[in-house]
Amino acid sequence: MQYWLMKSEPATFGIEHLKTCPQRTSMWDGVRNYQVRNMLRDDFKKGDLAFFYHSSCPAPGIVGMVEICCTGYPDPTAFIPSHDHYDPKSRRESPSWYVVDVKFKRDFELISLDELRQHAALADMQVLKRGNRLSVTRISPEEWTCILSLR
DNA sequence: GCCAACGTTGGC
DNA sequence: GCCAACGTTGGC
Fold first, then answer.
1. How do the pLDDT tens digits run along chain A, 151 residues long?
2. Closest protein residue to B12 using CA and C1' atoms?
3. CB of residue A130 closer than 7 A to nucleic acid strand C?
4. 10 Å Cβ neighbour count for A92?
5. What are the angstrom distances between the C-alpha of A78 and each of A38, A67, A82, A87, A89?
6. Is strand B less than 7 A from the beta carbon of A114?
7. Strand C and A34 CB separated by under 7 Å
8. ∠ CA(A15), CA(A21), CA(A27), 5° rounding?
9. Can you tell me the distance from the alpha carbon of A86 to that of A107, in angstroms, rounded to the nearest whole number?
10. Is strand B less than 7 A from the beta carbon of A135?
11. What is the CATH number of the domain that holds A63?
C-alpha cells in the first residue's frame, strides 16, 4: 500500500471531471514521461491512494483523494492515430506508455501550494521542489498523514 | 556517449 | 506571457 500525488490541469481533466465519470472512475492517460511511466507500470498497486493535485491554474494545490483501481496497463490512447496522445513509437506488442484507473474518494477544500509550503514536515515533497516536472510523485506515510490532518 | 538546441512544464 | 528548470532529440 503506497501513497501518491497525481497532477492534472483542471482545464483538461480536473477532479470535477472525475466525479462525472461512470462509477466516478477514469483512466489516468496521457503520461509521456519515462520516470512516471515506470512508476505507473511497476509500482502502482490496486488499493493505493493518491492526492489529486491541480496544476497550471489560478489556484494550484491538492483538491481531493483518489483510489488506484488496478495495476498499470498499456495506454490505449497511444495507439489511436487521431488521438491527441497518439505515439507511433508505442506498439501493442511493446507499449511505451502505461495508465492506471483511478476512482474518486473525496474532495478537499483546496490545500494550496502555499499552504503546503508552510509545513516543515512537508518540505521534502517533490511537488514543492523547484524544477519538479513529474506529474506523479511518491508521498511518504508521514506526509500523507500530515496533509490529511490539514482538513 | 557528449552536448547544444529545442520543447514542455508550471508557478508566478 | 515570462522564464527557470529539466527532459528529449539528434548530430557528431
1. 999 999 999 999 999 999 999 999 999 999 999 999 999 999 999 999 999 999 999 999 999 999 999 999 999 999 988 888 888 888 888 899 999 999 999 999 999 999 999 999 999 999 999 888 899 999 999 999 999 999 8
2. A58
3. yes
4. 9
5. 16, 24, 10, 5, 9
6. yes
7. yes
8. 80
9. 31
10. yes
11. 3.10.590.10
Number of domains in chain A: 1
Which bases in strand B are touched by protein, i.e. have an atom under 7 Å from a CB? Answer: 8-12
What is the residue range of A38's domain? Answer: 3-149
